[in-house]
Each structure stands twice: as C-alpha cells, then as structure tokens.
C-alpha cells in the first residue's frame, strides 16, 4: 500500500479507544463502567507510546528525502492537551455537576458527530483526486484492524474466564480506536491530510462493525433475560 496509507494505519493502531467505544459498549449492554475505565487508562498510556510508534512508522515507510520526525516531548505535551485536559474536565463536571452533565450529554454527542463529519468531508474534498484509490487500499486494512483487534480482545478476555459482559466491553475497547485523535495527529502534528485518509475511512467503517456488535449484544442480552 501507499506509504501515507501505511502510516495512517499505524497512527490509528497507536491510538486508544475513545468516546465512541464507550457509547457502543453502552448500547450493546456491555460493562460501560469498565469501558470508560479502559478508555481513561489507555489514553494516559498512549500519551507516552504514540510518539515512538508514529516515529517508527515514519522511519519505516518514508524515503529519506521525505523524512519527518515528531519531537517526542512536544508531541507528548500536545497529546496531553488534546486528550487528558478535555477528559479530566469532563470527569470533574460529571463528578460535581452530574445533572448538567446528563443534560449536556446528547447535545455534545451531536455536536461532536457534526464536527468530525465536517472534518472528514474536508479531508475527502482535499484528497478527492486520490480518494478512490486510497479507499481501496485503506478500506480492507482498516476493517481488518478493527475486526481482528475486537476478536483478540474478546477471546483473550474469555481465555482468562472474564464474564461475557465484561469481555464484550474489552472487545469493543480493543477494536474501536479513537479515529478523531488519529486524524488530529495526522493533520495537526504531522500537517498531512494524506496521513488522515486511513483514520477517516476507519471512522466510517467502525460504525458498521459497531452496529453489528450492538445487534449481537442486544440479542445475547435478550436471550439471557428469557
């Protein structure tokens, strides 16, 4: 595949889960509290790991004449601002102003979906000349990443005899990456819309697999109630 697609996939794989994974876990009747906890923990960990993984991808897939390197310390600081400050702010509001947090949950979700939709549309328009080719290259790989990591998450959890409800949340958290963060890293830190193509395509595909997971989770939960 094209180097920019390979790098986009690596950026995506390096990212933690995000709010979408929590929403899918909730809709699928998984353990939502576990999903949120895993998102928070992985977000803290990936502040340190993302710069090294992305730099590895840049060195591995770009020619010397195209070489880009992230400043590790600066990248850690920027990712901290992108992830930790908003998450911490949200947790504080939920802790001390629960009523307000509950009222704002739906409007914020809608606004967030609108913003990411605008960003993805902008990326598609800017890269329209190559988008079909990129989609053909990135679509299968992004889908494979999504499905494979969900399968690994679920079966490894079951291997350790974790209950089905928690295993479902671990599966979702393993397989639903934070596409918005991946796009932010590509566009803001690396100044490349080309690197953001794979995360943008993934952000669309994950709702398809997420919908399947929600259907399976609801069907399983209904069967258990019966």
What's the number of domains? 1
How would the global form be characterised?
globular
In whole angstroms, how far apart are the ends? 48 Å
Number of distinct beta strands: 0
Low-confidence stretches: none
Order of helices and strands: HHHHHHHHH
Helix proportion range: over 70%
- What is the beta-strand fraction? under 5%
What is the C-level CATH assignment?
Mainly Alpha
**Which structural class best describes the helix and strand composition?**
mainly alpha
For the residues shown, what is the average pLDDT?
Answer: 83
Identify the CATH architecture. Up-down Bundle
**Quaternary organisation:** single chain
CATH fold assignment? Na+/H+ antiporter like fold
Number of separate helices: 9
For the biggest sheet, the summary is: none
Radius of gyration: 18 Å
How would you describe this structure to a colleague?
This protein is globular. It has one domain (3-218): Up-down Bundle (Na+/H+ antiporter like fold), CATH 1.20.1530.20. The protein has helices at residues 3-14, 19-27, 32-61, 72-96, 98-126, 131-159, 164-175, 179-189, 197-225. It has 226 residues and is mostly helical. The longest helix is centred in the N-terminal third of the chain and has 30 residues, at 32-61.
Main attributes of the structure:
226 residues, mainly alpha, Na+/H+ antiporter like fold
SSE layout and pairing:
Elements: H1 3-14, H2 19-27, H3 32-61, H4 72-96, H5 98-126, H6 131-159, H7 164-175, H8 179-189, H9 197-225
Helix pairs in contact: 1-3, 1-6, 1-8, 1-9, 2-3, 2-7, 2-9, 3-4, 3-7, 4-5, 6-7, 6-9, 8-9
């Amino acid at each position: 595949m094209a180097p920019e697609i390979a790098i986009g996939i690596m950026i995506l794989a390096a990212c933690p889960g995000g709010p979408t994974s929590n929403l899918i876990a909730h809709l699928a009747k998984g353990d939502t509290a576990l999903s949120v906890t895993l998102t928070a923990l992985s977000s803290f960990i990936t502040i340190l790991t993302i710069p090294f993984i992305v730099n590895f991808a840049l060195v591995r897939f770009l020619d010397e004449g195209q070489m880009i390197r992230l400043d590790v310390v600066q990248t850690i600081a920027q990712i901290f601002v992108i992830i930790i400050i908003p998450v911490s702010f949200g947790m504080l509001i939920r802790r001390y102003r629960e009523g307000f947090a509950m009222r704002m949950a739906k409007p914020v979700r809608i606004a967030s979906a609108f913003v990411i939709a605008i960003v993805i549309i902008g990326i598609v328009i800017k890269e329209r000349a190559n988008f079909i080719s990129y989609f053909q290259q990135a679509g299968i790989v992004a889908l494979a990443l999504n499905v494979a990591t969900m399968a690994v998450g679920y079966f490894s959890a079951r291997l350790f005899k974790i209950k089905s409800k928690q295993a479902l949340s671990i599966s979702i958290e393993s397989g639903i990456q934070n596409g918005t963060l991946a796009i932010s890293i590509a566009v803001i830190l690396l100044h490349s819309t080309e690197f953001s193509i794979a995360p943008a395509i993934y952000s669309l595909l994950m709702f398809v697999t997420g919908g399947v997971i929600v259907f399976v989770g609801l069907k399983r939960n209904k069967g258990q109630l019966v």
